[in-house]
């Protein structure tokens, strides 16, 4: 086991060393073929040689570290013979004998808008496999042309003994129409041009930060982002002012009633003082949710800090996946600690705390694992490179077993021990028998309330969400991590306020089941995010096919679930502080 981790570390070092290519004139430079796939489907990537390109004998995959593997990178050698600073005019790569099935494969790839990714000295380069041309002719059967590009032109810039920049372009004059007929022979060729540049080696990745694939960087709608921020903050402000006034009224009313010492029938939230601190059903699971939420909050926080520190620059392949994996393992202690601590303080020392620990260790990982297995199976059936190799899965399992699980347990034991002797005493005594809940109008029912709760927080992040989706499920680059951080903080603030307000209104109509409700109200944004997926899929993206569709909805379901837990925790935590405060301020007997 340790061996594996050790070799993982070595692999990482090897990858670091590999990028530092120093070449002498005429030194060979290996060109790797990384993947091909439909441009619209970022996850549907296949081996370069799944298309009948000319392949070398040795198709072994170059060893990669965890990040690129998670991203679906599997570089294989190619036949391109490139030497440092040696120009090449029109060199033949090979004459490929394409069978009818091969031609069909290429044709389908051209229809699906396939692109390829090659790598030269760790620099990714992209191009299209072919192009589709539709002509306006009478004979409709012959109107579409399927052109396969057969000539690639590499233009490479160098500075002293380093490769700085690589461009690849397909020669539009050398293309083959695969429209008619079946088997044929196609000749592939390439050319290489070299030019000197004075860009420093350290800056060579910065061009990828500006545009990723084709010239399609974001046009940021600053105005709309600021607009939504201001609008949401204003609304939240109004809401809190109203709430303060109403609360002030309540307090003076209750105080007056006490002074007069009349046996006037009490109304409003004070009436349920004997019920609000009764622990909700399935309290162990409740604690586990709050613990998991705390862990996910810290995970997102650290990810954003890393992002602001520019750790996820575009050349750092798969760094975000690796960071998420490692940070999830390292923050696991939070889940165990918060869950066990809360359980211990509310429930006392004789609760079933092992069960509680088990719940906090599985609430999020198990759904994630199930989804991963399902999607990985689909990827394997599609023979896609998005399927993780067995070794990588083992490494992830080992990390879970050796880091995540022990940390959760240590956190849980610590949480339980620190809770000992510090049991929570509610400001009002809890009645033995729950109070009956009066009839509730339809717009105060749980479903309506939860729907209302998600509306405002969702509108705060709606615009950001579009950019995130376009970079995660498209080829755009996200660089505005500062803004994302602000949006995240705003989301938390708005969620807290909305949940507090809704909890107040709920208690005001003497409905005292607020524990789970506040969790759901806070987390309700997660439902909205998942609903937004449908809008994005059908309205904003051109993803297609069963594999990409299941990847998109599958992983978004897990992400929405994570958002639900995380924001639900915020909703509950702030509602709890609020409830404890208002009931400490009134005299209850
Ligand atoms: C389609 O067009 C090509 C090129 O113009 C021509 O060679 C071919 O004969 C046409 N095929 C049919 C079925 O009309
Ligand atoms: C690569 O393409 C870009 C954009 O077209 C151009 O600015 C740059 O000079 C090219 N670099 C090389 C080495 O050809």
From TrEMBL:
Keyword Phosphoprotein: no
Any one GO BP annotation for this protein: protein localization to membrane
Main localization of the protein described in the UniProt heading: membrane
SUPFAM superfamilies: Calcium ATPase, transmembrane domain M
One Pfam match: EMP70
Signal peptide: 1-19
Keywords, ordered alphabetically: Membrane, Receptor, Signal, Transmembrane, Transmembrane helix
TM region(s), chain numbering: 220-243, 286-313, 325-343, 355-382, 388-414, 450-469, 481-507, 519-539, 551-579
Localization per record: Membrane
Cellular component GO terms held in the UniProt record: membrane
Family assignment from sequence similarity: Belongs to the nonaspanin (TM9SF) (TC 9.A.2) family.
The protein's name: Transmembrane 9 superfamily member
Organism in which the protein naturally occurs: Chrysochromulina tobinii
